[in-house]
Amino acid sequence: MLVKKLFAYLFLLIGTAALVTAPAVPIMSKIWKWNSEHGMNDKWYGKHNSGWGDLANMAYLDCVPEFQEGYTYDFKHPENDSVKNIALYLIGDSYTELVPGFAFAHTHSFQYSHNSKQFKYTLDTSKKNVLLIEITERFVINLLRGRDFFDTSAQNSSLSKGGDGKKNFGAIMNKNLEYLLLDYNLFNDVKFAKAKFNYRVFGRASGDVALSENKKYLFFKPTVSRQGIFSSYAPVADTQINYLVSTLNYIHSFYQDQGFEEVILTIIPSPASILQPANYNQMIPRLQERSDLEMPFVDLYSIFSNAQQPERIYRVGDTHWNNKGMQLWLGLINDRLSVISSR
Amino acid sequence: MVVTIGYYQLKKQNARVWLLLLASCYFYMTFVPVYVLILLFTIVIDYFAGIVISSSSGRNRKLWLVVSIIANSGILVFYKYFNFLLSNIEPIISYAFPHYDLPYLNIILPIGLSFHTFQAMSYTIEVYRGKQPPERNFVVYALYVMYFPQLVAGPIERPQNMLHQFHEFKQYDWNNLKEGLARMMWGFFKKVIIADRVAIVADHAFANYGSMSSGALLIGAMLYSIQIYCDFSGYSDIALGSSQVMGIRLMENFKQPYMARGISEFWERWHVSLSTWFRDYVYIPLGGNRKGEVRRRMNVFIVFLLSGLWHGANWTFIAWGAIHGVLVTLFPKTPADSVKYKYLKRAILIAVNFILVTFCWVFFRANNISEAVTYIYDILRLQGGSSYLGLSVTEVLFAALFTVVMMVRENKYGNHFISKDLLFWVYMIIMIAFCYFFGVFGENQFIYFQF
Q1: How close, in Å, is residue B439 to chain A by CA atoms?
Q2: Distances (CA, A) of A112 to A91, A96, A132, A133, A323
Q3: What is the ipTM score, two decimals?
Q4: Would the pTM of this model clear 0.80, i.e. be above it?
């Protein structure tokens, strides 16, 4: 009887603590921070990270050999690169955050900023100042809605929430409760078993991860759903394209007025747009084809979609490209930098 | 679990009611916290309306009933139908005033609005009719409207069934707990193993109907019928089970509707709490069957039209209600079982009725009327096309197997009570493991949450 009562009170205590903590977003942030600072996520608390890729981790499919693909990025000094007359500024994201300055041609100085909110700069008046804006396709609509590209608070809030930037409170609470009660590494074996079972028997991934039609790739599910601003398959209206063009033109003229000699845009296609293009909404080509788009465009989409083996551009269990994809992009960027350097 | 343990630890009913109310507020506020104020507003109005109605007579009595109904339905109309009404008058306004921007609302629909509004209205109507004394304990009345197991998707309860239960001190009963937990597990089974799995097929069919074969489209529509049943009745099972663990009984909402032999019988088995609500508060006040056959049929049609509108602000729901209204008006009687060929005839009637209901669900599921009509036309014209259903063949077969298991279980072994403790624990462990390994998680909210 006493044991029963003790158990009841223990459940009551733990449950009440979880229910009170989960909706308190600031407290949850502190718990997250404390856990990562003290290495708890690697020990017994939090998500596992096998290194086989973010999607493989999320779907617990990193236990399946098909998705255990390692990666290394091979950065070299460009050839014929003796003239260093460019000050390069890159506003990028996780696709480009690892690229070192020496990999860019004719670059005297290089500054990387993760998204525009961190972009603080001083122009080098003795060099050609070039601003390269890299956006991953799934973030294009989110980043270019309104003038959020410059409004750091709006950008921060919409990005940090994930999804379409408007997840409801219930979804946040569910995530927090799951983190507090179920995200322990000791449960991982069960999670791996379920993921493996669903993959082998039903040919399906779970959660925010979808399997490609040929079952060889993992996609971030919002990029292949029928709706939502992250999706490569959700229809994009002509009015939306008009709006994106006007925003890009605004950004272009803004930075030119600040003194940048060249402002270049590069959009990294979502893996689904290239590897499974049947229902692609054609957002990138439609943007590129617009004659009234004033911002110069590095056309990575054509290169990727016409590549002989597009399946070798992206990592199988990750949202990002592999070394080949990276090199194709660097080649295009360096060609453009060479033209600017020689002007 | 936390609420149930806390509930049985408390030794005073008053404290238990407070606990349930706080838990209900917490539950509701996890969606859009500020919307709890909408509930509070209607609760206050209806609470005082109930007291005033019971203590007054004549016009004053009627006046307070009208105030209560206007307050409840006003909120429903404002949040649910305002934009729909505007979009329908927009062509006329735009023609008359080309530069006038209509004031569309940019709001999220409060979750379960139609459910708790109807439940609140049933209270004041019953008090007005003298069938229910007014509830003088404000906390108990607030709990009647907000009781968390059925707050967002029913069953739409009646005050006669609920209010007295909130005054009774329920003793801890292990059998109640076992039955409630087993029923909750069964609800989870229907939701995560069947509904959310067949939803993948239905979503695929409704997103790609132009390129799919007629056979695949028919399967997609039939699986949507299965999805909506398992989704909604699964939620009801979870609601009834979670309430039962605290000793509080809710009304049954489903009686194996797809075993109905005709459309009228279907409506005696589907979403019973809503059907009886419309019967008691709309059909009978309109005259029911007391004013001749023509009027009766008209009343039936009006009820179904309103039922369609209750589901959502879209012409597809109105069309769905209207079609059911026409069918029930035309075929009011369930065919009698004949002695000869009893089982065969019954099976044929069930199958025909299921197909009929499935075609009606197409209107319910489609984004607009034209999509629904095209979908049905594409089925009927026997077109070729893709037969891919959005799931592997293995998984479709699994879904079919689970559906058969579910139907046999509900038809033959409807009881959730397992008397032997060992069997109960084995059942629970197997069901939990089954739901975890075969379940599809995080894909779809309960369909009826949106209403």
Answers
A1: 10
A2: 6, 9, 10, 10, 19
A3: 0.75
A4: yes
